[in-house]
Amino acid sequence: MGAGRFIIATNVLESSELSQELMLSEYKAQQSCERGFAFLKDPLFFTDSIFLKASERIESLAMIMGLCLLVYTLAQRQIRAALTDAQSTIKNQLGKSTDRPTLRWIFQCFHSIHLVEIHQEKYISNWTQERDFILNLFPDDCLVYYQLAT
């Protein structure tokens, strides 16, 4: 398999200020950020269904979306770090083991869980060992939402 080739240009001319290795890592970091903004443009985020006229509201929405992206990224990092620490993996969408799942996939794994109340007693439906394992990768504060901690 051959390596791909591409050109990276900069206006920093002194290699002492910006080495080739640092330039490449900075470039790759931009790609990570771009993938994050692609998430915000995803049709499932419903951004295309929001219409705002006032510039203040547009700025506010952009701020909220940026904060959502920050929380998403931090939660995804938490899951991946916890999997690395546990030297474990979970199944991805194709059923293959991964230690780098997307948070979107994690959300989809929890999509069919419901809180059911019968005779004033609450139960969690569709709970599995895999979902329990995934949830325990998050901080304990997250367990409260599934009534697994107080």
SSE map:
Elements: H1 20-41, H2 55-85, E1 90-91, E2 97-98, H3 103-109, E3 114-118, E4 121-125, H4 129-135
Antiparallel strand pairs: 1-2, 3-4
Q: Any overview of this molecule?
A:
This protein is mainly alpha-helical and 150 residues long. It is extended, with a radius of gyration of 21 Å. It starts with 19 loop residues before the first helix and ends in a 15-residue tail after the last helix. It contains 4 helices and 4 strands; from the N terminus they run H-H-E-E-H-E-E-H. The strands form 2 sheets. A two-stranded antiparallel ribbon has the order 1-2. The chain has a two-stranded antiparallel ribbon with strand order 3-4. It has a domain at 50-146.
Please describe the structure with a list of short key phrases separated by commas or semicolons.
9% strand, mainly alpha, 150 residues, two-stranded antiparallel sheet, two-stranded antiparallel ribbon, extended
Number of contiguous helices: 4
Major pleated sheet: 2 strands, antiparallel
**Which blocks of ≥5 consecutive residues have pLDDT under 50?**
none
SS class? mainly alpha
What is the H/E string?
A: HHEEHEEH
User: What is the beta-strand fraction?
Assistant: 5-15%
Average pLDDT metric: 82
Number of strands: 4
| Large-scale geometry | extended
Q: Span from first to last CA?
A: 53 Å
Bin the helical content: 40-55%
Trace the largest sheet across and list its strands: 1-2
Please state the CA-atom Rg, rounded to the nearest Å: 21 Å
